[in-house]
Specification:
By secondary structure, the protein is of the alpha/beta class. 34% of the residues lie in helices and 10% in strands. It has three helices and five strands; from the N terminus they run βββαβαβα. It is globular, with a radius of gyration of 15 Å. It starts with a strand and ends with a helix.
C-alpha cells in the first residue's frame, strides 16, 4: 500500500491505523503481540491507543498501553511506528468531565511512562 502524506507535515502514514482498544478485553497479550508484529511486517506504521483503553475492565488499568509498551520494550523501541494516544476521557466512576489542561497532562504523562517513550 502507498503511504499517505499528512498535509503540512513531513509525516507519511500507512493508510490503515492499528487500533488497540480491545487489548485484554478481546485479545490476549499473545494475540496482541502477533497482530502488532504482523501489522508492522505489512508496512504499518501508526498505532492508536488511549490512556483509558482497558480501564473499564474489573481490576485493570490502561492495559492497551501496557501491552503496547511491553511490545515496544521487547523490540528495543526500534519498530518505526508512530503512536497516537488520547486523554481527558470522562471519569469511569462518576462520569465527571475531565477535559481540562490538568487531566490531559496527567493522562498523557501516564501514557508516555507506560509506553516507555518520551514523546
Amino acid at each position: 500500500m502507498d503511504l499517505i502524506k499528512l498535509p503540512n507535515t513531513d509525516l507519511e502514514l500507512f493508510p490503515v491505523i492499528f487500533g488497540t482498544g480491545n487489548f485484554k478485553e478481546k485479545l490476549s497479550k499473545q494475540e496482541a503481540v502477533y497482530l502488532l508484529d504482523a501489522y508492522v511486517d505489512m508496512g504499518g506504521c501508526c498505532i492508536d491507543t488511549a490512556n483509558i483503553y482497558g480501564r473499564w475492565l474489573p481490576g485493570a488499568m490502561n492495559t492497551s498501553e501496557q501491552f503496547l509498551g511491553e511490545w515496544l520494550r521487547d523490540r528495543g523501541g526500534k519498530v518505526g511506528v508512530m503512536i497516537t494516544s488520547k486523554g481527558g476521557h470522562p471519569s469511569l466512576s462518576d462520569g465527571r468531565c475531565r477535559v481540562n489542561r490538568e487531566c490531559l497532562r496527567l493522562d498523557l504523562e501516564d501514557s508516555l511512562r507506560t509506553l516507555g517513550v518520551d514523546c
